[in-house]
Specification:
The structure is a single chain. This protein is an alpha+beta fold and 704 residues long. Helices cover 55% and strands 13% of the residues. Strand 8 and strand 9 form a beta hairpin.
């Protein structure tokens, strides 16, 4: 969490320093210093920012990371952009590559960014912002800052998937061996020991593991301060400079972690109680369990209300916080509800054992009836692991149809059709010059949208209305129209309308994904003073995109854009896919932490169980009693935990699976999880029964 905060703070500081000062917003009455315009481009379907600049005075201020203005026709690229786009001709796309953008001018070390100075006469004032410097108190959404999630959203993911499981593991670790420790503390209290002495005793026991953990943290933190670290699976480059800028916060977190563990150990030790009685006394532990169980319905109602609120307001930071609190609260309190239910069912099990004379059933019922805290610890890890698995499964699927549809569209469309956005008021001669550089078999049409009205002829009377329909207009010469399967009008300027389904496959690809009723066809030149062009190959052969981009920037000038059809959709899907990589990364670590906590806790309970019931065979006269007790006290609660964990997992994913969200939680996944947990619970019960048998063979009456 400290590293996340440091990265966001450093990114915002550098982003504010490179934000342009618009001339209209300044107090100066002098002329602007330079022209500035941001546009977007793609490398491997990943969008990045391209900033076009044109200094108007000799001493024009430089943005951070730039030591000198490039000459006309030159470009500065970030190291990450140069490395990723080398195979797509990024070095020559915007002109001559003359240097790299320094780290102080990048949001993070892995940001893709370009500063481009167009050739003489290509950058018009009409297509740019006049500015007089750089640096604002708050950053614009430039570069990576426009696509990253907010700090609140990212921290909520860290808290839910890492901090909560780590807290569970801390609690389990602090309470391992609690039975013997609690008896010792009670004895100290009977002998007059104070709470301070009990705390020192607990800290002494935990000092070794805590110091070992701190020793493992320190080298990792030092390494992150010295070198950039690439986060596995996500590909994100964690900048060491960002962490060094907030080294005090990182050092504080490194010291706070062992201190928090030490405080947890002290708080989870029962106080030494002194009384007139010489018998050690324990404290009732069911009160906290009951409080947690009472809070559970509140969190469930919170999650039930969230989908309707999100549908009305969207995924705001406040609603994201509510989702996080509801999910964490549900996973934390649901085990207490299950524990109280099983503890209440213990009375029925006790009565059943008494009626049938079954010693194992009787003992198991009494065991579960009075130990809600034991049951909560036993089931908490299992239920939290199931809940996290459900979140990890559902969250990426919320937008999976969008990502999958975009990839299918790219596989179908390829690069045989390219859309070109020509800046307004661009001289037609530039566009014509660029068209002459196209391959001989390429065709070009002008493409645009229009709206037409439909209604009754004559004056509109009461109750009558004019309907509005969206249209697509295609304008080109006869060879281009024929390649789209359209009839060419007899004269220039003539046109007609056609149904989209009547066109050739190329035309249907052009209008796919748009809600149009008809296509307007007009014969004429495709070259206009700005607008949208479509360049395509009639045979479906892929165009050389990097050559088209390079020649367009050199001939038409900025801010021209040359993109494959549906690139904005595909680029958004790629961005979303990259962001969703954090979910399985954090979720996997979180599930591993929860699984480790559950394993340690349950193994400790098995050992405690085997020692506690070792003398039972002497009274029961049969070793089969161990199997019955293990089935009731271990296997049954774990099976209930698996079932209720699935219920809790389904519940906390409701905000992601109910409209307007379209996430999916496959039933096969839930069935597999339940099957695995039931099998593991049976194995654990059998192991406990066998351990109790071996312990009973070694037990003697004088043993404690």
């Amino acid at each position: 969490m400290a590293a996340t905060w440091a990265v966001y703070e450093a990114r915002d500081a550098r982003g504010a320093a490179r934000t342009p000062l618009l001339h209209a917003a300044g107090n100066s009455t002098a002329s602007p210093s330079l022209l500035w315009k941001e546009t977007g481009d793609h490398v491997h379907d990943r969008q990045f920012s391209v900033i076009f600049v044109e200094p108007l005075v000799v001493e024009a201020p430089l943005p951070p990371g730039v030591t000198r203005w490039p000459a006309p026709g030159e470009a500065l690229l970030s190291p990450a952009l140069l490395a990723d786009g080398r195979d797509e001709g990024i070095e020559s796309r915007y002109g001559k590559h003359v240097g790299a953008i320094g780290p102080e001018g990048l949001a993070d070390p892995g940001e893709r960014l370009a500063y481009v100075r167009p050739a003489e006469g290509l950058f018009a004032r009409d297509n740019a912002y006049p500015i007089h410097g750089f640096g604002l108190s708050s950053p614009w959404a430039l570069g990576d800052a426009a696509s990253v999630k907010s700090l609140t959203v990212f921290l909520s993911m860290v808290i839910g998937m890492l901090l909560v499981p780590a807290g569970l593991l801390t609690v389990v670790a602090a309470r391992l061996g609690a039975a013997g420790r609690d008896r010792r503390v009670a004895l100290i209290g009977a002998l007059g020991g104070s709470r301070c002495q009990v705390s020192l005793l607990g800290l002494g026991e935990a000092a070794g593991p805590i110091l070992l953990g701190a020793g493992l943290i320190a080298p990792l933190a030092v390494t992150a301060l010295l070198v950039d670290i690439r986060v596995p699976w996500t590909g994100y480059l964690l900048g060491a400079a960002d962490l060094r800028a907030h080294a005090s916060v990182l050092a504080g977190a490194t010291l706070a972690a062992p201190l928090l563990v030490a405080v947890t150990v002290v708080l989870l030790h029962p106080p030494a109680v002194s009384s007139r009685s010489t018998r050690p006394q324990g404290r009732p532990r069911s009160r906290a369990v009951k409080v947690m169980a009472c809070l559970c319905p509140l969190f469930l109602l919170l999650l039930s209300w969230y989908p309707a609120a999100a549908a009305d307001k969207g995924a705001t930071p406040e609603l994201t916080l509510i989702l996080m609190v509801g999910s964490i609260g549900t996973l934390a309190t649901l085990p207490a509800v299950a524990a109280l239910l099983i503890s209440a069912a213990g009375r029925a099990v006790t009565a059943l054992g008494r009626r049938r004379g079954a010693a194992g059933t009787l003992l198991a019922g009494r065991w579960t009836e009075g130990r809600p805290g034991y049951l909560t610890r036993l089931m908490a890890g299992v239920m939290m692991a199931v809940g996290l698995l459900c979140l990890v499964q559902v969250y990426p699927s919320v937008n999976d149809p969008f990502v999958r549809g975009a990839r299918e569209a790219r596989a179908q469309l390829g690069l045989s059709m390219v859309v070109v956005e020509v800046p307004e008021r661009t001289p037609p001669s530039r566009t014509e010059a660029w068209l002459r550089t196209l391959p001989g078999d390429a065709r070009t049409v002008a493409y645009g949208n229009s709206v037409s009205g439909e209604g009754p002829e004559g004056e509109i009377g009461p109750g009558q209305s004019v309907g509005v329909r969206p249209d697509v207009m295609v304008r080109g010469e006869c060879p281009a129209l024929s390649a789209l399967g359209l009839a060419c009008p007899e004269r220039v300027g003539a046109g007609y309308f056609v149904d989209p389904a009547d066109g050739a496959p190329a035309l249907r690809r052009l209008v796919s994904g748009t809600d149009v009723d008809r296509i307007g066809v007009e014969r004429g030149s495709s070259v206009l003073a700005g607008g949208q062009l479509v360049v395509f190959d009639p045979d479906g052969t892929e165009l050389r995109l990097h050559d088209l981009k390079r020649t367009a920037y050199a001939t038409i000038g900025p801010p021209v854009t040359v993109e494959p059809l549906a690139q904005s959709w595909i680029g958004g899907a790629q961005l979303l896919s990259d962001q969703l990589r954090w979910i399985p990364l954090f979720g996997t670590f979180g599930v591993l932490l929860v699984a480790l906590a559950a394993t340690l806790n349950n193994l400790a309970e098995v050992m405690r169980f085997t020692r506690a019931i070792a003398p039972v065979s002497v009274l029961a006269g049969s070793r089969r009693v161990y199997a019955a007790v293990a089935a009731w006290t271990l296997m049954a609660p774990l099976c209930v935990a698996a079932a209720m964990g699935v219920v809790g997992g389904v519940w906390i994913t409701l905000p992601l699976t109910t409209p307007p969200r379209d996430g999916e939680l496959p039933g096969s996944t839930l069935a597999l999880v339940v099957g695995v947990l039931v099998t593991l619970s049976a194995v654990m019960a059998m192991s406990a029964a066998r351990g109790a048998v071996r312990e009973s063979e070694r037990w003697r009456p004088h043993h404690d």
